């Protein structure tokens, strides 16, 4: 089995989260493979920008997910281990990378995103990340006196 280390972002803009539909008709979060001596957080930021065209900043680590699938092109099973980061964007502007097979996407309310997201572990990740993000925002508002 091929094991790949990946990194991705759960991007929030206010009370909305970014998701996109891939070429397999799955609603997913942006992520990519960590190669050579790259750093996970840099890969996550780069993939968010490359796949979704979103300018975001990392707020906090979100956790890790693992999943396995059979790669038709490689003719072997693959295990992806994904390091996730909670990110924040100041704008809902995005530009999907259609060359990567993404045809639909955007910032959705948490409830709408949870209905659309294909995989249960991604749904759980978004729920957890949203709670952490809200805690971060409240702490930030307290620290700045807002």
Please tell me about this protein's structure:
- With 146 residues, the protein is of the alpha+beta class.
- The chain has a single domain (2-144), classed as Nucleoside Triphosphate Pyrophosphohydrolase, CATH 3.90.79.
- The chain is built from 3 helices and 7 strands.
- Strands 1, 2, 3, 4, 5, 6 and 7 form a 7-stranded mixed sheet that branches.
- The longest helix has 25 residues, at 120-144.
- It is globular and about 45 Å long.
- It starts with a strand and ends with a helix.
List the helices and strands and how they pair.
Blueprint (H helix, E strand, L loop, with lengths): L1 E12 L2 E6 L5 E2 L2 E3 L6 H13 L4 E15 L4 E13 L15 E6 H7 L3 H25 L2
Parallel strand pairs: 1-6
Antiparallel strand pairs: 1-2, 1-4, 2-3, 2-7, 5-6
Give a concise summary.
The chain has 146 residues and is an alpha+beta fold. 31% of the residues lie in helices and 39% in strands. The termini are far apart.
Query: Helix- and strand-based class?
Result: alpha+beta
Query: What is the third-level CATH name, the topology?
Result: Nucleoside Triphosphate Pyrophosphohydrolase
* The level-1 CATH class: Alpha Beta
pLDDT averaged residue by residue: 93
Which descriptor suits the 3D outline?
Answer: globular
The CATH superfamily name is Nucleoside Triphosphate Pyrophosphohydrolase
Using only CA atoms, what is the Rg?
15 Å
Content of β-strand: 35-45%
Distance between the termini: 51 Å
Total number of domains: 1
Number of DSSP-assigned strands:
7
